[in-house]
Amino acid sequence: MMSALNDTKSNSAVFLLTGIPGQEDVHLWISISFCLVYVISIVGNSVILFIIKTDPSLHEPMYIFLSMLAITDLGLLVATMPTILGIFLFNSRKISLDACFSQLFFIHSLSYIESSMLLLMAFDRFVAICNPLRYASILNLPRIAKMGQLFVLRAVALIFPLPFLLKRFQYCRANVLSHSFCVHQEVMKLACSDIRVNSIYGLSIALLTVGLDSLLIFLSYVRILRTVLSITSHVESLRALNTCVSHLCAVLLFYTPMLGLPVIHRFGNSSSHSLQIVLGYVYLLVPPLMNPIVYSVKSKHLRGRIIRVFFK
To answer: Of the four, 14, 79, 166, 221, which is 20 to 30 A from 7 by CA?
Structure first.
């Protein structure tokens, strides 16, 4: 450990990742669960993409946004798989400084892109319910492409400085991370320098992305609810709300752990360490696992197409 600590005084440092503390003896068995999660998630999102691409009747805004969400989820899986499975399968705990910074860049970028995709899907439901006559003209393919590109550029531009802000530090503290992957909130705490700039910048970009997106999603559903309540037909009201259920589930699956993890990192104490570890895995692995399942269950058209592909 002393040699590792000495290494952290230079920029050739290595960080030590952590699996599940106290469960090292059963890491190999735990790895089976993680492997299943990765396989199911990758297959599920790949099937969603294949179905939407090959079925012209699904080339609608709602399903195009769903395909964007699936691509983002696949990116998150690829970004976390090497370190998570490396620890549980091979007990490979070391990660170099540059590899750690690269991983946190992709994790944070893709997380912010996923937040943006959920906002676009909320906008899709808002237009479909509150302004259905203009739905096709507002959400045309060129506009969807431009919105997608804008949000991807926003995430990349905001996260791009983080690795460079971290690289300027000297790391001379205990270099053990709490997770099986690298995140900015935790890596910056290992520096033996003033981290106020990183802390302020990290909080600012979180507010400009996740904070703003979640607020706009909330406002969209306020307008949707007002419109639905104004519909005189009870059946039509329920039908309109039912089209939002899968999106609401995706929003809750994503934002609950994502908003909770930074709060615990900044204000938590030693008693919240286990919750921090659990939320870290939930934050990265549960949305990619559950999104294809939720949308397949709630969309009759998508579910029917999947059944035809596998059981024809």
So the answer is: 79
